[in-house]
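Need tokens for this chain, all 220 residues.
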Amino acid sequence: MPTKEVVLLDFWASPFATRVRIALAEKGVAFEGQEEDLFGGKSELLLNSNPIYQKVPVLLHDGKPVVESTNIVAYVDEAWPSPPLLPPCAYGRAQARFWADFIDKKVFDAGRNIWMGKGEELEVAKKDFIEILKQLEGALGEKDYFGGDSFGFVDIILIPMTSWFYAYEKFGGFKVEDQCHKFSAWMKKCMERESVAKYLPCPQKVYEIVIMLRKMNGIE
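Here are the structure tokens for all 220 residues:
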């Protein structure tokens, strides 16, 4: 049975779009990526496919749009069941969804508070960000990956966020590795995967995007 047409509307620096690229790569699903110009003008296809939020990523599977990155990764796992990204047991799946939700609510916004912050605000933002990573370290425990021995759902939700960490470190004046050894080891292990190495954005280029965003927000 031939694979239905798969198109991903994305933006290279978006950690949310990167989640979907990695998930599709893990499944061995061929897809066509369509880069959106988020600063110069979004395409009609994006606006029509995601009229509520008007943002990337959008997965078009046989012409039908699926939106919101965590939702898309879950869809990819159902649409192409092998290899599975979620654990086999109901409890394991519930835990994975909990931590994916935690990551969605906490990590990117906490990082944004670092590069948007100054003075005391910046110090508070750094403390909050490191605390979030320590909570994630606790969830990881002694396991290689969040789901256990195999790279899976939570790893896919979290690892793209790390491409922005270099920018947080530069503006925050700290090193993740100094604060969170286990988390850093997990990052390095994930980077060894072909899907991650291929699609994770270059941290230096993301840093340049953050410099631009700071100027746009009048921080420089």
